[in-house]
Specification:
By secondary structure, the protein is α+β, with helices and mostly antiparallel strands. It has one helix and four strands; from the N terminus they run ββββα. A four-stranded antiparallel sheet has the order 1-2-3-4, with helices on one face. It is elongated, with a radius of gyration of 12 Å.
């Protein structure tokens, strides 16, 4: 398992991921938004060598979607 963090709307997001180049990457992101714990996950086929940047974009899209629909 690999771990890194990024930020979403000023909150620190902890991301755990696993997988390999040429395969599929699975990730889980955890963040506290508006005082509530939020966890989202996803998977995608690796298309570049910038795995953490690709995951960060997916995490941000997922958190925007969840936040936009009010889902917590």
């Amino acid at each position: 398992m690999n771990v890194f963090s990024c930020h979403f709307r000023g909150a620190r997001v902890s991301v755990i991921y696993d997988g390999d180049l040429g395969g599929e990457i699975f990730w889980i992101a955890n963040v506290i938004l508006d005082g509530h714990a939020q966890s989202i996950d996803g998977a995608f086929s690796v298309q570049s060598t910038h795995i953490q940047a690709d995951i960060t974009r997916a995490v941000i899209r997922g958190l925007e979607w969840v936040s936009g629909r009010g889902g917590r």
